[in-house]
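User: For a reading group we're discussing how well predicted structures match intuition. Take Phosphohistidine phosphatase SixA. Before you show the prediction, I'll give you the sequence so everyone sees exactly what went in.
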Amino acid sequence: MRLITTILVLLLSLAPAAATEAGWALLRNGGHVVLLRHAITPGTVEPATFDIENCATQRNLSDRGKQQARKMGALFAARAETTERVLSSRYCNALETARIAFGDRLVEPFAALDQPLPGTQIDDAQKEEIMNTIRAFDGSGNLVLVTHLEIIVALTGQTAREGEAVIVRPDGEGLHILGRIVFN
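Assistant: Thanks. Here is the predicted 3D structure of Phosphohistidine phosphatase SixA, as structure tokens, for the group to look at:
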């Protein structure tokens, strides 16, 4: 019984690594769209004093989150085709993730990637704006969209951990997940 348990634990620990390697293989070829959930941020909801223009009123990256964002950038630079464009939610945790990982020069704030207000969901117009941007992308490098869990779920029907990359392609009215990269 102990041997079976050990084997199961080993197999389960290898699954994310295999998925991550498959994700890097996709990004090496370029021309892909990546939904990247912002790096590690303490807490689960924005404070009541939230102001989109003031980072002091928002949940910001933890030290571990900043380290994770640096790792993302280093790995994208080393293992993927050029990152052609980076669009980010205007929330400070997403913008900071994007800027640390990819540098200020590439990062463009994109309001459609903002998470919905508490108790609301992404609306059809917001989803369509994101989908139109994804459908229009035809670059040889990769397009990275730094956003939030709610947006990733609305677009794919799947969750993503903080700092996880979900590689997608348009499929009818939605997105098809091609691969994932987990940044620990």
